[in-house]
Design brief:
This protein is an alpha/beta fold. It has helices spanning 2-27, 35-48, 76-91, 118-126, 170-175; strands spanning 59-62, 66-67, 95-98, 107-108, 114-115, 129-139, 143-152, 158-167. It is elongated and about 90 Å long.
């Protein structure tokens, strides 16, 4: 009788444990973060970290975020984050302009210092831009890592920066995958 009870308890224990492993399996999938919320938070962090004034109403240019593995490439992830950053800045009281700037915005001068090329600086000055928001992202296994910087056009100094990550859920995977050419 004791052996029978022990067998039943062991069988029940194994059943319970096998049920837990299924729960763990399903809960281990990664859910997407709300990209809009994350982008608006990022602008909040950038504005809170400004090292010099950027008066409301100033014109800020936003460039598409680029993939760190290929600085000449921007994928849907970089473009949508840039658009959302633009919206968040606009709602915060800034004038915003997207410009077709080279994806590699800064070039090294003879001294090896990164600076805005004269043509880019001239274009930004011609529209009256006070700052430019630039950034990059790197897709990982479980997260996409994003770095943003606000650069003062006149001095070319970084006046604010932030880094954050976005969960690599199904939407983020699609947005960070290079689209296949249509045939």
């Amino acid at each position: 009788m004791l052996k029978k009870k022990l067998m039943v308890l062991m069988l029940a224990g194994l059943t319970v444990l096998s049920g837990c492993s299924r729960l763990y399996y399903y809960s281990s999938s990664i859910d997407d973060d709300d990209l809009v919320e994350v982008s608006y938070d990022a602008i909040g962090w950038l504005l809170a970290d400004l090292r010099q004034p950027l008066p409301k109403g100033s014109l800020v240019v936003i460039n598409s975020l680029v993939n760190v593995d290929d600085m000449g490439q921007t994928l849907p992830f970089g473009r949508i984050i840039s658009d959302q950053l633009s919206s968040a800045l606009h709602r915060s009281g800034y004038r915003v302009m997207g410009m077709e700037l080279p994806t590699e915005i800064f070039a090294k001068n003879e001294a090896g210092i990164l600076e805005l090329p004269e043509k880019t600086k001239e274009a930004l000055n011609n529209v009256g831009a006070k700052a430019i928001v630039i950034g990059s992202y790197a897709p990982g296994r479980d997260n996409v890592y994003v770095s943003l910087r606000v650069v003062d056009i006149a001095s070319q100094n970084v006046v604010s920066s932030t880094d954050y990550s976005v969960a690599m859920g199904p939407d983020a995977k699609v947005l960070t995958t290079k689209p296949q050419p249509k045939q």
